[in-house]
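Here is my example:
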Amino acid sequence: MGSVMQRKNGRTVIQWTDGSGRQRQQVVIATGQDGQPLSARATEQLARRRLAELEEQGRRQRLGLDPLRAESLSMTFGALMDWWWALKGKNLRSHSARSYIEKHLRGTLGPLPLREVTSARIQRLLADKAGELAPKSLNDLRAFVFNFFQVARKPGGPWEGRANPVEDVERFKVTPRPRKVLAVDEFEQVLAEVPRRWEGPVATGLYAGLREGEIFGLLKEDVDLKAGILMVWRSWEAPRTKDGKALPVPIAPQLRPRLEAALGSPGPLLFPRRDGSMHPSNLRLGRMLRGALARAGVVEAWLHRCRAPGCHHEVRSQKATPPARCSECGKPTVWAKPIPRHVTFHGTRHSFGTAVVRGAGTAVAQKALRHSDVRLTIHTYGHLDDRDIRDGIERAFGPAARARNVTASASELRTGTAGELRARSADAFRPAETGASEAENDAQAPVDAEYSEIPPLRTGARTARSAASARTRCSWAA
């Protein structure tokens, strides 16, 4: 909404928002066609008319009916990045997003005007980055540029009324790598080897499926042991989770004693530092967790390494016992180092999701993981292997399934004996109440498939209706 302002020096100024979303000002020349100065009332009327014209022009530009000003078209991509960060980027929870986009976009696309940032140029930039970035990182970089233009296309933005050039940029194919998770019977083995100060957070990840920021952002008031739920609504110091939802999470029986112990910690946080303050968001617990995995025996292989000076020979092996002597130098200095399963701290959430999928199905796992789309639960957190598939097929077609639901084989269907497998009621086998004895009924020969047609039973009502129809046909013919 524009306005007409009167400055102290006597000038009349109009202010409005143009088609690119920028606020602009213009001084009204208070002279008539004859060159004589206008009165204050005439100057205000002139300013109101000029303001209405400029607002209508801005409206048509936002609708794409009129072209934008040349200065809006010449806005650089770097200025668009700064505009996007001030509007939306500063609210992101990621601490490395800005440095990431500055490193890969500012130097190449930053000086270019927006009209020169085409789909072909963006595609060429991503192709040049393919040597240093993985396909998923390239797709993330593409998503940032797409969001720049998508936000700028909204009413009042610097790219309003134009198509997003990133829509025609192809995504890179990402080959998903299998994530390493823990089985349910390995949870307690690992927790027994985790240091005491980290046992509560790791158990919360394994038995509740919370993210790292949600675990260390839990308050003591969020724990309701009587109702058996954890109220999850924070992530680190941020007053919202990754998906912005505040939902309760049930407390598993194995998690309850560990939460009771954590309630005695100092301060309002459930898992704080020793002084009661919050852990930093750059906390890295993956190495600690993999050390516990190695001590618990959850290993993938062993590294047989020679510790003789100057040798350093090493061989990866599936045997825990190293050879008596090194095959390189011949000295008895070979040690076996366990290589634990590469489970990250976020892998505890994946382990929880996989365990719930195996035990209760994807619908329950979706609710437990607080996903809005079940496809995320299936494709990202349901890490089922060939053993799960074999167990499912065994439950579907094994002896237990055949005992529950007896089905007829193909030979039985062809010979007509499939009906013997169906359960029948007692009335189905009871003979009809006639004068013939049971022995006579048993002695009766089976009825052949080809039998003579039995005429239908004629009743009085049927005969009366037929006679009435005949009289009607006769009266109509007369």
In short: Residues 354 and 384 are 7 Å apart (CA to CA). Confidence is low (pLDDT under 50) at residues 420-426, 434-459, 461-478. The two ends are 89 Å apart (CA to CA).
